[in-house]
Amino acid sequence: MGNPWFETVAVAKARSKKRLPRSVYGAIVAGAEAGISRDDNLSAFDQLGLRPVAAGQHAHREMATTIMGQPASMPVMISPTGVQAVHPEGEVAVARATAARGVPMGLSSFGSKPLEDVVAANPQTFFQIYWAGDRDSMSARMERARNAGAAGMILTLDWSFSHGRDWGSPSIPEKIDLKTAIEHAPDVLTRPQWLMSWLKTKQLPDLGVPNFPTGGAPVPGFFEAYGTWMSTPPPSWDDIAGLIEEWGGEFMIKGIGRPDEAKRAVQAGATAISVSNHGGNNIDSSPAPIRVLPEVVDAVGSEIQVIMDGGIRRGSDVVKALAFGAEAVMIGRAYLWGLAANGQAGVENVLDILRSGMDATLLGMGKSGIADLSIDDISIPDGFFPPRI
Ligand SMILES: Cc1cc2nc3c(=O)[nH]c(=O)nc-3n(C[C@H](O)[C@H](O)[C@H](O)COP(=O)(O)O)c2cc1C
After folding, report:
1. 111 exposed, middle or buried (CB, 10 Å; 0-12, 13-18, 19+)?
2. Structure pTM?
3. What is the C-alpha to C-alpha distance for residues 330 and 350, in angstroms, rounded to an integer?
4. What is the CB < 6 Å shell around ligand 1?
5. CB burial class (10 A; 0-12, 13-18, 19+) of residue 242?
6. Which of 44, 144, 274, 299 is deepest in the core (most CB within 10 A)?
7. How far is the CA of 330 from the centre of ligand 1 (A)?
8. Average pLDDT estimate for 246-254
């Protein structure tokens, strides 16, 4: 293999396309229905302009901050993703990479590695749950997170079980046994590097979700856990407030896209929100988070930590989000592509790309650091923002 280092997130994406089985790659790039929101998450950033200065720049640009009570070397953290079989070391590799780069991470309850192993590799881990199963099982998941030493909780609410996708959802087996291995052989055998990385560990991806079961139940397969979640009635704001109170510490609500709901999150006792549309995987036509961010920041920015995720591929995207009032951003697909391309080093590579891109942007804009940014630093085209609600 040539030099595994990559220069941009786009290069990592191209490498992971070559490396991963089509079904796994497809699950990462997918968006709901026509992918309007997924694409808008990216094009919205492209529409925002920067106006560099030619002189008077600062020799050092300050990027350190605090995310949900945790010191972070830059305003970037890993967004939780429940995607299996990307890399044998999975979220443990992500935890090592984030610990090495001094940033926190979110771990999905649909992730592939046990919470305890991930927290051991990076104690700055927030555990992410959905409103899934009965209330006791949610308490049990939080208790497990507490016992493992998780630094906080994330409750993700922006998922509407919208399954139709114009790209055609690939068939993903629940377990890899001989029968499914033969069925999927044409897909997998064309990806020898990926296959070798698993064979070296003497295991094949089992697609189990080890952070989902409670009370000593066996690890369910992805679709069994998904079924439990799907059949759980959605929560009221009072239900959410009860869960937050029970946790009693740092608690993010992920998936806010409206100022009225941001206020409800504050009232419910959350300490942070992420303005998000699940990477374009909630109902299609939801606006790109960056388009609604200033409206949400105006509503609750002084009361709660406002974070955003969706479409971050470059350091300049992070700078734009911070200028719009986010205190930090989360990344999803970018680190999954890094992980697929080169394991732990690939995730570090992605974090380094974002850091150096942020630094270059701050330098070019004549800023002393992230605290120096405001919305006036960004050229915003007419019609960029949807009508305020
Ligand atoms: C393959 C995949 C799986 C995801 N799984 C989860 C999950 O389990 N929990 C969650 O809160 N968000 C999940 N998300 C959403 C991400 O946390 C994040 O909101 C989104 O990826 C951000 O957009 P970006 O990929 O453009 O950075 C997932 C996203 C992708 C692409």
Report:
1. buried
2. 0.96
3. 13
4. 27-28, 41, 79-83, 108, 110, 128, 156, 254, 276, 278-279, 309-312, 331-334
5. middle
6. 274
7. 9
8. 98
